[in-house]
Design a protein that fits this description.
about 700 residues, alpha/beta, 34-stranded mixed beta sheet, 16 helices
Length: about 700
């Protein structure tokens, strides 16, 4: 393609003016509450001497603090508003530019106070905030049909051009319409109820109602933005204090940014049809098309995010993601891994070589993977669509040739050489890597740097969703044991326990699964459920002042007076009873909730009920675990439960410590170091581990509180 000359640009600009002037580009042209005036004759004379030109000087408006000497070699077309220009410099990192407009072409814009605009070849239909730097930009334009990444239609537009995000399934049947402020919870509700036509229509109606259908909205650049060395920026809404350097293409985009939560876009980046959340960073040649990124998210090192929604506090490096709905706290860092057609419910980590998707078992588009929170596929693991995974499932390296339905939380799934069936070890994390479980809670809270937490995210690995799954899992294992080993003694010795297995035909298509250590799994599930109930009691009630009798009385009262919800859903990271989710959807359909703001407020209202609902669910879990009615409990039984929880708390610390200690004591791990001093220098001293020290302090404080409580 031949290079566009300056004369060509002038012709294009003049034709665009004739076509659009007074017809478009005025809806958000609010003049930023400034007082403007026409240029004075002396100012025009100075501007002309400085090699500036204008289609019509009467269409150039300025403030009283405008210095014409600071505009040099610039062309103006259409109506342009210029804010204060005073002699000073703007600085960002090592870049220092004088205030003013130099060597640029500006067409129908509103420019804020004391900007530094230099070498911008074409700037059209933008409102530029105060103290912005625009430096070395090829083209920066807003069209008359700008939507800034939102999945809406303007007047006279055909449905076929609407931007949709086709999440969770490559076939496109779970599409949602992106909008500024969309949460993974919104996408979850929209994508998981495709059989409800009324609900689907309401979601479209609510989204459309957020926006004006008129064409002609200016692009915006917030105060104190820095945009430099970029090629094409088209139809962009850019928040304050954003830093954009070296981007190849930014088109139909909203970049949410503020002085408190600035976002950054780096070299070689290409963003098309999407929304970038506050405090996000996109660097090093990353690409994103038809996407939403939440708060405090990162794309870097050539990552590709396509037709996907990425939740808050997530990082994607190198790899490829297509057609996904991903909840907060997702990590994926390796170039040879990809994730296609999945709903991943957060707190997840995708290892190198994990290949999830890519038409493994069909000539059709990929189906879908549905993984609850804590999904950790191991190195070089790949799966068949469609598969489902319970919470906190670790999948070991291997090729899994058939669809799986893993209903055992906290389990290890592996393939065994020479066997067609897969192997499942329920409760693996509690038995072999408690360090990782406890550290997750610690690190997620530490990494949650969102200034505004738009929705509550449940980070505790023990919560109503996982408790219900553990209850169902140990019930299923018990049933399998009774069916397949009817003569099993009540107390079996360790050697028999280690070799005992049961078979679950429903865990994988065709060949099923071998359940390892079923007796041990039942015991650890029951143990952790009792611990979960006890720590929930300690969290909900003030055990520093109450007696055992008072707490027992409160528990009985709660059972009588609070509704019980046994089924829970993870809605964007927030745990909500399934009945409440259905009530919420009903309010959307009957038009009680008429905006996404209303729906987000409803999430917050539901959160207010969560502590009571969770505690009532704990009572249910306790009764199901010990097969005893709380109304028949004695004070001694409650004391026993709470004392037992201190033992488990200490067990958790011991297991977490020993898991980490292996890195220091295992001879094979030590062999690369010259001596122990060098190892400690490289790894750090385990005694200085912040997480373990914090966990030990929590354990000691909990034990002390429970000791005082049961003796009060």
């Amino acid at each position: 393609m031949s290079e566009v000359t300056s004369n060509d640009m002038k012709k294009i600009s003049k034709n665009f003016i004739k076509k659009n002037k007074d017809e478009f580009f005025y809806y958000n042209h609010n003049l930023q509450n400034r007082t403007y005036r026409n240029l004075q004759a002396s100012e025009i004379e100075t501007l002309v001497k400085n090699n500036n030109s204008a289609e019509n000087w009467n269409e150039i408006y300025v403030t009283d603090s405008f210095d014409p000497n600071l505009v040099v070699n610039t062309e103006f077309y259409g109506r342009v508003y210029l804010g204060d220009l005073t002699k000073r410099y703007l600085e960002y990192n090592d870049l220092r530019l004088p205030v003013g407009i130099y060597n640029s072409l500006i067409f129908s814009c509103e420019i804020g106070n004391n900007v530094a605009i230099r070498n911008v070849n074409y700037l059209a239909h933008y409102i530029i905030g105060d103290e912005c730097i625009l430096f070395n930009i090829d083209e920066m334009i807003t069209s008359d049909r700008s939507k800034f990444g939102n999945g809406i239609l303007k007047e006279d537009e055909d449905e076929s051009i609407r931007i949709k995000i086709e999440i969770a399934n490559e076939n496109g049947g779970r599409w949602v319409l992106p909008f500024e402020g969309m949460l993974p919870s919104d996408a979850y509700l929209w994508s998981r109820h495709r059989d409800d036509d009324l609900l689907m229509n309401r979601f479209v109606e609510i989204t459309e109602s957020m926006f004006d259908k008129h064409r002609g909205w200016y692009g915006t650049v917030g105060d104190k933005c820095v945009i430099k060395h970029c090629r094409i920026i088209k139809d962009a809404k850019i928040g304050g204090s954003a830093y954009i350097k070296g981007a190849n293409k930014i088109k139909n985009i909203t970049i949410q940014s503020s002085a408190e939560e600035p976002s950054q876009i780096g070299e070689g980046v290409e963003l098309v049809n999407g929304i970038v959340g506050y405090s996000s960073k996109i660097f090093y040649g990353s690409k994103a098309v038809r996407f939403i990124m939440g708060r405090n998210t990162q794309l870097k090192y050539g990552a590709r995010l396509i037709n996907s929604i990425l939740g808050d506090n997530s990082t994607i490096s190198c790899c490829e993601l297509l057609n996904n709905l991903i909840y907060p706290f997702h990590e994926q860092h390796h170039n040879n891994s990809f994730l296609i057609a999945a709903t991943i419910q957060g707190q997840s980590n995708i290892a190198a070589g994990a290949t999830i998707g890519s038409n493994h078992n069909s000539r059709a588009a990929d189906g879908e993977i549905f993984a609850e929170r804590g999904f950790w596929p191991g190195l070089c693991s790949n799966f068949k669509h469609n598969s489902k995974f319970a919470a906190f499932v670790l999948v070991a390296k291997g090729t899994y040739s058939y669809e799986m339905n893993i209903t055992y939380p906290f389990s290890l799934v592996s393939s065994v050489a020479g066997e067609d069936s897969i192997s499942i070890m329920p409760g693996y994390w509690f038995l072999h890597n408690m360090y990782a479980m406890e550290r997750n809670n610690y690190k997620f809270r530490k990494r949650d740097t969102r200034l505004i937490k738009e929705q509550h995210i449940e980070l505790d690995y023990l919560a109503p969703d996982t408790a219900s799954e553990m209850l169902n899992a140990f019930r299923r294992i018990t049933k399998l044991l009774m069916t397949q080993h009817p003569e099993l003694p009540v107390n079996i010795d360790k050697s028999e326990e280690d070799t005992l297995t049961v078979f679950d035909k429903d865990a994988m298509n065709k060949y099923g699964a071998i359940i390892r250590n079923p007796v041990r799994s039942i015991n650890i599930y029951q143990k952790m459920l009792r611990y979960y109930v006890a720590v929930s009691i300690a969290s909900y009630y003030d055990l520093t002042t109450m007696t055992v009798g008072e707490v027992l009385s409160e528990l009985r009262s709660m059972k009588s007076n609070s509704p019980l919800y046994t089924e829970w859903e993870n809605v964007g990271g927030q745990l909500i009873p399934s009945d409440n989710v259905q009530e919420l959807l009903g309010r959307i359909k009957n038009k009680t909730l008429n905006s996404w703001t209303d729906i987000h407020t409803a999430y917050a209202d539901l959160l207010n009920d969560y502590p009571v609902q969770k505690m009532r669910h704990c009572i249910y879990i306790l009764e199901q675990t010990v097969t005893s009615d709380i109304n028949k409990w004695s004070e001694d039984e409650l004391r026993e439960l709470m004392v037992g929880s201190t033992s488990i708390k200490k067990y958790i610390y011991k297991m977490a410590y020993s898991s980490r200690e292996k890195d220091y004591e295992n001879e094979f791990k030590r062999m690369t170091y010259l001596n122990e001093k060098e190892m400690v220098t490289v790894l750090g001293d385990i005694k200085d581990n912040d997480f373990l020290n914090n966990l030990r302090q929590q354990t000691d404080e909990y034990a002390k509180m429970i000791g005082e409580f049961i003796n009060r």
